[in-house]
Amino acid sequence: MKLSIKIIALLFFSLQWISISAQVDTSQIKKHIEVLSSDSMEGRLVGSTGEKLASEYISNYFQELNLTPFTNNDFINYFSFNYNSNPHGNGTNSNTITGRNVVAFLDNEAKYTFVIGAHYDHLGLNEYNLSTDSKGKGQIHNGADDNASGVSAVLELANMYSKNNIKEHVNFIFVCFSGEELGLMGSKSIAEIIKKEYPNSSLMLNFDMIGRMDSTNSLNIGGIGTSPNFTITINENKPDNFQLTLDESGTGPSDHTSFYTNGIPVLFLHTGLHLDYHKPTDDADKINFKKTAEIVDFAKSVIDDLALNPELPFLQTKLKSTENISSFKVTLGIFPDYTDYGDGLHIQEVIENRTAEKYGLQKGDIITKIHKTDITDVYTYMKALSTLKKDQFYKLKFIRNKKNQTINIKF
Q: Boundaries of each PDZ domain copy (predicted)?
């Protein structure tokens, strides 16, 4: 019996997809993370020698793939901004910093363009006191998970799409941002340029901290409410062993926010915070390279599906603040889960020897109220912190094992 042309075509493209998805190279992901998070990169602080070395590594890789420089025949896109290391001061600590985004273009002569990005900068030697380690000053913060892991995904996808001998229905912009740690500075700059020069950009997919997937195989995906096609596509491509937590909001504490505010649908992939977050101990030996590769493979399957019908409508979602919790006068000493569950702030980790541990809060507790502020998510949590003062007691309500509890806590 002869097969119909339609069935033959479906079989062809199915086999073709299988061969492409098998190309995810775990060894290359491992190499990229190890190089970018090595001591020689000195923590990749925006404006530093380490940032320059990291940008050259990324730029050279884009050149090896024969990708097109985004502007002025150069993969480096420079940007400048003023940064005040003391946000509560009078501005005397403000200085001008010049950063380096690294941007490449893959031209498929298509109408629509997808942006694939991740920030590559980190904390350097804690020059701006953003470390969560009280003894972090002067120590190299290698940022293997934050965010050499995300950059490895961008580089591997650039490799796969540039070598697959297929002309997709979309063009690709591969971008590695700098200045994220000081306030999304690089992505704010380049997002406006991309929106102007590529007005048909219909997706920005952002990887930020995807290297520490644990035994639960949990992956958080933000931005699913920014286009009506996202949820079904993500669920159809979800690996059986993945446990997904989906968040509708197009904003949050990473670079996809800059594209959402320019009217571009976004997706944000991350595996969550951990006790090495913003510490010198965020090193490559703690990365799960195999699972990082699985996340890249999953992301590519989602991109491939969306690229078949790339006219993705943009939807507005509930706005969330991107303010850094470290800027407040009081801190609780937890790593919050940024996912909006709607029932409170879920504690992802409790930091040793800090306020939360002292008063008995635990991983998995759900904070529902601090003082006079009802807590529904990380952003109402930050709002609450902004109203509190040091050395005063406040009531804190939380849920543990489905039971409501109240404690008095001194910040």
A: 342-410
- Reduce the DSSP state of residue 327 to 3 states and report it: helix
In CATH terms, the fold of domain 22-308 is Aminopeptidase (3.40.630)
Which position has the token pair 């997808």? Answer: 114
Please tell me the pTM assigned to this model.
0.80
Which residue is listed with tokens 């406006």?
192
Assigned superfamily of 325-410: PDZ domain (2.30.42.10)
CA distance linking residue 213 with residue 292, whole number of Å: 7
- Virtual CA dihedral for 157, 163, 165, 170, nearest 10 degrees? 30
Cα separation of 147 and 253, whole Å?
13
Q: pLDDT tens, 52-70?
A: 999 999 999 999 999 999 9
- 393 contacts: CB under 8 Å, gap ≥ 6: 408, 409, 410
Cα–Cα distance measured from residue 265 to residue 334, given in angstroms and rounded to the nearest whole number = 30
- CA-closest candidate to residue 182, choices 137, 238, 121: 121
Condensed to tens digits (0 to 9), the pLDDT of residues 74-123 reads 999 999 998 877 654 555 567 899 999 999 999 999 999 999 999 999 99
**Amino acid in position 12:** F
In the chain, what are the domain boundaries? Answer: 22-308, 325-410
Among 219, 272, 208, 216, CA closest to 246: 219
Tell me if 265 sits within 8 A of 227, measured CB to CB. Answer: yes
